[in-house]
Amino acid sequence: MISKAKGYDHLFQNLIPNSIDGIKIFGVEDQYVKPQDYDSINNLENRIWAELYQNLEFLLDQYASSEYLLGLRALPIPNNMFPDFSAISPLLENSTGWTLLSVAGFLDEELFFEINKKRQFPVTEIIRKSPRFDEKYSGTDIKNNKGYTPEPDIFHDIQAHVPFLMNKDYAKFMWEIGILGDEIIKDHRNLGPELVTHNLKRLQNFAWWTYEYGLLKNNGASDNYRRAHNDIQYEIYGAGIISSFDEVTNVVECAKGKSDRSIFLPYDIEEIVLTCFDYSNIQDRYYVIESMEGLYCSFRENKEIFLFEG
Question: For position 47, which CATH number holds?
Answer without folding.
Answer: 1.10.800.10
